[in-house]
Design goal:
The chain is of the alpha/beta class. The protein contains six helices and ten strands; from the N terminus they run E-E-E-H-E-H-H-E-H-E-E-E-E-H-E-H. The strands form three sheets. It has a six-stranded mixed β-sheet with strand order 4-1-5-9-6-10, with helices on both faces. The chain has a two-stranded antiparallel sheet with strand order 2-3.
Length: 229
């Protein structure tokens, strides 16, 4: 069977209760749960959380919460991989799991079709993972930064006179979903490696939500592109 695992801890400093804050009329985690439940290739949706409040909301929207995550795996600096490995260890007693889809709880722009198309393009390959990426709108090789004195410098000075059309196209992790073999997650194998495939998303579908400004931008994108307002 295939499972989706959504990691959703209680703590959030910049946006209080971020994982269950209302987004377009319902808890933001509900968007991830509902899109996962609609997938043709996900048999069960599991939420890993240290909060009974989040667990109740997750169950209300159709996810299962067969365990509560220990506080040792719910700190601000806890990496995601140990959280997924813990969830799989809890689930392995009763389920034969083949593939896992890690989905973040703050991914309201996610679409089921992307989850499914990525899966079908990857499942019969020899790759450990496939994850969503978005292209940079402008060549990162011409990025600028400011030093301690406020002076502007190029991050890659060797490209000072390189035309943008001559530079390689680059991408960044969309932070939306990651399909992987159970064995790869068990071993906490690196996602950003030659053993991964990528699935390119439209730029509007990827929006980090770390600040209130990010939240407002994501809601605007949702209203325009999903609701058609």
């Amino acid at each position: 069977m295939n499972v989706a695992i959504i990691p959703a801890r209680a703590g959030s400093k910049r946006i209080p209760k971020k994982n269950i804050k209302l987004f377009a009329g319902k808890p933001i985690i509900a968007h991830s749960i509902e899109k996962a439940l609609a997938s043709d290739f996900i048999d069960q949706v599991i939420v890993s959380t240290d909060s009974e409040e989040i667990a109740q909301i997750a169950r209300h929207h159709g996810a299962k919460t067969p365990f509560l995550r220990p506080s040792s795996l719910a700190a601000d600096d806890t990496p995601t991989m140990p959280v997924i490995a813990h969830a799989l260890s809890e689930l392995s007693f009763s389920k034969e799991i083949h593939n896992v889809c890690l989905i973040y709880p703050t991914a309201p722009l996610i679409e089921t079709c992307d989850i499914d198309v990525a899966y079908t393009s990857w499942v019969n390959t020899n790759k450990d993972y496939i994850f969503s990426v978005v292209s940079y709108a402008y060549p990162v090789q011409r990025a600028l930064y400011f030093n301690a004195e406020g002076e502007v410098s190029m991050l890659f000075e060797e490209h000072l006179n390189t035309r943008s059309q001559e530079l390689s196209h680059t991408f960044h992790d969309a932070g939306m979903f990651y399909w992987g073999r159970k064995s790869a997650f068990d071993q906490e194998k690196a996602v950003f490696s030659a053993q991964s495939s990528v699935y390119e998303l439209s730029r509007w579908k990827a929006q980090d939500i770390d600040t209130p400004e990010d939240w407002d931008c994501a809601e605007r994108l949702y209203r325009i592109n999903v609701l058609g307002d």
